[in-house]
Amino acid sequence: MVEDKKELVEETEVAGSEEVVSETSGEEAPKANRAQHGAPRGDRRSRGDRRGQRRPRREVKEYEERVVSINRISKTVKGGRRLRFAAVVVIGDGKGKFGFANAKAAEVPDAIKKSLELAKKDMHKVEMVKGDTIAHEIVGKFGSCQVFLKPAPEGTGIIAGGPVRAILELAGIRNVYSKVYGSRQPLNILRATTNGLDNLKSYAQVKALRGK
User: Fold this and answer.
1) How many domains does the chain have?
2) Which of 90, 140, 145, 174 is the most exposed place for a label (fewest CB within 10 A)?
3) DSSP assignments along 66-126, one per residue
4) What does the angle CA 17 – CA 26 – CA 45 come to, to the nearest 5 degrees?
5) What is the pLDDT of residue 62?
6) CA pair distance 187, 66, nearest whole angstrom
7) Is the pLDDT score of 7 beyond 80?
8) Is residue 146 part of a domain?
9) DSSP symbol at 178
C-alpha cells in the first residue's frame, strides 16, 4: 500500500511538472517571437510608409516681392457703394531687374496677385557700377513728382524711404542718396524713380559723350 501511494505521488508530480512546462512554454514562445521579429507587420508597413513620404520642397521664387501700399476704394452705384482694394507691388531679383504695378480687386489677396502678374510683364533693367551704386547723378520725373538720385560710397546704404527704398533694394542697389520733391503719392514716386533709373548711362556711354 505504501509503495502504491509513492508511485501515485510521483506520477502526479511528473504530470504537474509537464503541465507547468507546457503552460510556460505556450506563454513564453510568443514573447520570444516578438522579441526576435519585432513589431507586427502592420506596424512595420506604416513606419515604412512614413519614412518613404518626402516633405514637399519649397519653391524658389524668381523675384522678391514687396507690397508698397494698399488702398480701399469705393464706387457709388445704383444699389449702393461697391468696395474694392487697390494694391501697389514692387518686385526684383536683386541683380538689376525690377518692376512694379498696381491692380484692383474685391479682396486684398486678389489685388496683390494681379499686381504681381502685371509687374512680371513689365520689367526694367538698371546698370550698376562697382560698390553696388549708380553711375552718376540723375533726376527722375513724372508729373509733379521728382526723385533725385546720387551715387554713394560703399558702406553708406540706401538713404531713402518708402517707395524709393523698396524699388532700389529689390533692384540690387545698396549705396545711394535720394530725395523726393513734389507729389508724395506712392505710384507717382515709383514712376519717377523708374524714369530716373531708365535714363542712367553706363560708363562707356559717358566716356563716349565726353569724347574720350
Assistant:
1) 1
2) 174
3) EEEEEEEEEEEETTEEEEEEEEEEEEE-SSSEEEEEEEEESSHHHHHHHHHHHHHHSEEE-
4) 165
5) 79
6) 14
7) no
8) yes
9) E
